[in-house]
Amino acid sequence: MRKLKSIIIWFQNEIIIKFFGIVIYIFFILSVVAPIYSFLTFQPKRAQEFWSRLAVKTLRLQFRYLPNSKKVQTNKRTMLLFNHRMQGDFFIHDVVSQYSANFLARWMVAVAFPMLAIFQQLFTQSVWFFRRGGNDLNNFFKWIDNKFDKATRPNLLVYPEGHRMHESDKVGKMKNGMLQYAYDRKIDTQIIIVLGIEKAFNEKKFHVSLGPTQLSMKVDEIIKPDQFATFELFVEHIQAMFKKNFEETYDNHYKQL
Question: pTM for this one?
Answer without folding.
Answer: 0.90
